[in-house]
Specification:
alpha+beta; Ribosomal Protein S5, domain 2; four-stranded mixed sheet; 4 helices
Length: 194
C-alpha cells in the first residue's frame, strides 16, 4: 500500500496544496512565496526522505502567519491521511541535530493526541521572515497530524541555525516514527487505535 496523500486548503487568505509521499526518496518541489519556509521544508523533505510538493499563495503582504500556519495544517493533514490506520509503524521517533552552535532535540509520538511543547526560542528575523512563526507552523502540524511533538532547543545563537536544526530534526524524527516494522501488522497501542 502506497502511503501518499494530497491535501488542499483554500480560504480568503491563502490557497495551499501539499502532496506527500511518506516512502519517498527526499525529492521536493516547494513554492510558498516565503523563501525561508521553502528552505526549511526542503531540509525536512531531504533529511526525512519524504517526497514533498508544496504550493502556497497567500496574503503575505498582510502577515506571513496565515500562509505558514496553513502549510502546517496541510502537511499535518497529509501525514494523518497517508498513515491510515497506522498499522505496523514504529510510532515514536526522535533526533538530536547540531547546526554549528545550535542543537535541537526533537521527539514525536504518533499518538492520535495533538500536543506541542517547545523549550527554547527561535527569535529574530531571517531573510525577512519572523522566526517566531516556527512555533505557529508546528502547532498547526501537531493539531492536524494528531501527534505529540517535543522540541527542545538546547543551544544556539543564530536564528537561522536554530530553525535549521529544528527542521532537520523534524524530518529525521518523523522518518523514524513512520517506519514500518517488518512483520508487524498491529496498531502500536494497547488501546488498539491511534
Amino acid at each position: 500500500m502506497e502511503r501518499k496523500a494530497e491535501v488542499k486548503r483554500k480560504t480568503k487568505e491563502t490557497e495551499v496544496r501539499v502532496a506527500l509521499g511518506i516512502d519517498g526518496e527526499g525529492t521536493y518541489r516547494i513554492s510558498t512565496q516565503i523563501p525561508f519556509i521553502n528552505h526549511m521544508l526542503e531540509l525536512f523533505s531531504k533529511h526525512g526522505n519524504f517526497d514533498l510538493e508544496v504550493e502556497a499563495e497567500g496574503d503575505v503582504e498582510v502577515d506571513p502567519h496565515h500562509i505558514v500556519e496553513d502549510i502546517g495544517l496541510c502537511l499535518g493533514a497529509a501525514f494523518f491521511k497517508a498513515l491510515g490506520e497506522k498499522r505496523g509503524i514504529t510510532r515514536y521517533g526522535h533526533a538530536i541535530v547540531p547546526m554549528d552552535e545550535a542543537l535541537c532535540l526533537f521527539a514525536v509520538d504518533i499518538s492520535g493526541r495533538p500536543y506541542l511543547r517547545i523549550e527554547g526560542q527561535v527569535e529574530g528575523v531571517v531573510g525577512g521572515f519572523d522566526s517566531g512563526l516556527v512555533k505557529d507552523f508546528f502547532l498547526a502540524f501537531a493539531n492536524e497530524s494528531k501527534t505529540t511533538l517535543h522540541i527542545h532547543l538546547i543551544s544556539g545563537e543564530n536564528p537561522h541555525h536554530k530553525a535549521e536544526s529544528i527542521f532537520k530534526a523534524f524530518g529525521l524524527a518523523m522518518r523514524m516514527a513512520v517506519r514500518v516494522i517488518e512483520g508487524k501488522l498491529d496498531i502500536p497501542s494497547t488501546k488498539g487505535v491511534l
